[in-house]
Amino acid sequence: MSSIYQTLKEEAFEANMQIPKRGLAIYTWGNVSAFDKAKGVFAIKPSGVPYDTMKVDDIVVVDLELNKVEGNLNPSSDTPTHAELYKKFEGIGGITHTHSPYATSWAQACKGIPLLGTTHADHSANAVVCTPMIKKDAVERAYEKETGILIADTFLNPKKVGALNYDGTPLKKLVPIENPMVLVAGHGPFTWGTNADKSVYNAAVLEEIAKMAWVTMTVNPAWKPLPDYVVDKHYQRKHGKNAYYGQR
Asked: Residue 153 sits in a domain of what CATH number?
């Protein structure tokens, strides 16, 4: 008998299988979830299960209070982080977390990624944000949940956590759906989207942006951010009300 969550589990499974396909993680170093807002549940990768042995039936379904709704395995250890983001970020239907090497290297350096070129501007009109380092008491209290709270506060209440731009200036409030990626200081990247597949797409984009930025800064240590008028043109032609990129 088919589960009422079968479609959601299949969405999560297919998105998770994109992680090794896109070279975003090795072994079990990543997870994707798919959210059904109407049902108030999300499907997520089981903890510690390798991609090459994972099956659709292994995907675990939980509600936003972390109660297991369906599945025989333990959900990802990052499940509380996903839950916090679904609670606080409007419009997202999928979340991806990986340890892709370039994005993770920026996170380990505790540095946001400046907007240096049009590839970045096509996907976001802002630099990629890095959260502040999580506090010791937060780790001891509820590490994964507090990681989600830290990400949410970095976007929605940056003054509360003292979030900074890449240049050290105070970060202003950001709209998560328009800036679908973040670096968690010392940890790694999280990305999101309107569905699970889009969240993995954004994870792949982030990894490429991180790599390009590193190469750019190596080639030219006197780099400068892309001018705002070029940023605006590239972002608006794909995402603005008069967007003309692609087919209509």
From this structure: 3.40.225.10
